[in-house]
Amino acid sequence: MDELVLRPLADADSLEAITALLHRAYAPLAAMGLNYTAVDQTVAMTRERVLGGQCYVLARGAQVVGTITVNGPFDPQRHAWARATPWYFRTDVAHIHQFAIEPALRGQRLGERLFAACEAWARAQGHRAIALDTAVPAHHLRALYGRWGFADVDEVQWDGKHYRSVVMVKPLQPGTPPGLDDAEHHCAVVRTLWTRVQARDWAGMRALYAADAVTHWPCSGEWFLDGDAIVRANAAYPEGWTITLQAVDALADGRVHAVVRVDHPPGVFFCNARYRLNGGPTGPVIAEAVEHWATAEAPPAWRTAEAVGAYRREPV
């Protein structure tokens, strides 16, 4: 019998066969009433997920008997579904998905080989930790991941799932592990905020503000003096807008700086914002924000290269 080989997914590997493997591996979870994506995902979904990261397989000859995919940080612009947890918008945390072992081969520690490959990849990319999520009622999986060094850090409700999920994280680098109070997590909260605004997820937006949060709009002289008022002002804004999050960075004073573009035809607006976060019952929340809103407009006719010298214009 051929030896099992751990390797990256190859062009010759059948995504149809890998999808069927996922279905077989997740069938016991489906029998528990847990509608994991891999229970019945299409081949197109398998392709989308493996192309989004690094997929590894365990193969015996041409037969794939195990698979796993590891991703780097998710992009708020392209992965709006990840807005349920800031952990998936941290730039220093990798993520594991669609993990499966052929049911007849379970109990041989093959999963550890796949996870080790993902951890090695994440370390090589410079990530400080690796994360995954699984159903809260899947106690056997949570116990397994706990033995592998993962610990619970968040609990979320994914769209369309019949169960709540727990997010688990394993540190990969020496030193202080990623935590709720570090600068990168505060940045991740701000990325989550604007992804929820774009999704019109107003309840999710409200969850990221302290009850007594204050937001100041200096350009219009307006103050919003609690979390509810902040959300109501955003939710009531006339529809037709699209948000592009252009930058999120930690400031030396502990605040978070963000630059946001809003396309609201025929206009374009930019927000230059600073946020201060405090600890909340389940993680950091925004306590104070200053958002400078400005309208994009053409420069005056006199401002040209001839008049100024080293100068150029670009379309907004």
Automatic annotation (TrEMBL):
<protein>
    <submittedName>
        <fullName>GNAT family N-acetyltransferase</fullName>
        <ecNumber>2.3.1.-</ecNumber>
    </submittedName>
</protein>
<dbReference type="GO" id="GO:0016746">
    <property type="term" value="F:acyltransferase activity"/>
</dbReference>
<keyword id="KW-0012">Acyltransferase</keyword>
<feature type="domain" description="N-acetyltransferase">
    <location>
        <begin position="4"/>
        <end position="173"/>
    </location>
</feature>
<dbReference type="InterPro" id="IPR000182">
    <property type="entry name" value="GNAT_dom"/>
</dbReference>
<keyword id="KW-0808">Transferase</keyword>
<dbReference type="InterPro" id="IPR050276">
    <property type="entry name" value="MshD_Acetyltransferase"/>
</dbReference>
<dbReference type="InterPro" id="IPR032710">
    <property type="entry name" value="NTF2-like_dom_sf"/>
</dbReference>
<dbReference type="InterPro" id="IPR016181">
    <property type="entry name" value="Acyl_CoA_acyltransferase"/>
</dbReference>
<dbReference type="Pfam" id="PF00583">
    <property type="entry name" value="Acetyltransf_1"/>
</dbReference>
